Every structure is written in C-alpha cells, then in structure tokens.
Write the structure tokens for this entry.
Amino acid sequence: MNRLTREQAAIIGAFTGVSCGPFEDVHQTVERVLGRPVFTHEMANKDVWREVKEKIKPEFLSICAIKENNHG
C-alpha cells in the first residue's frame, strides 16, 4: 500500500480538519492557500477553515482522483 506524501497529508488535513501528518505541514498549507501568515489561534476559527476548505478543494479532489462534478 502506498503512503501519502507529506504534501498530500497536509492537503487532506487542511480540507478535512483532521490531521494525518505533522501540524506544521497543515499550518504551512493553510498559509499557502490563504496567501498570508496565519496565527496558531486562527486555526480554531470556523470562518478561516471555511475559506481554507473552499480554496483547497480542487487539490483535495485531485488526491481523491475524482472530478468535482463526479459523484461516483
């Protein structure tokens, strides 16, 4: 079985809010997709996560190997 790369794990963590790798990787990914520094306390903000999830969705779906409009 193939393991996730650290980048894939960070993308999944940023999309789902469930960490499957080092926290610092998720944090860096969140900063990358938001295009700004993110303070640790902001990682508990639902609005921040909503924005992150929206912006990282295409990357998450590419890991899942499905297209956005494909439900099967």
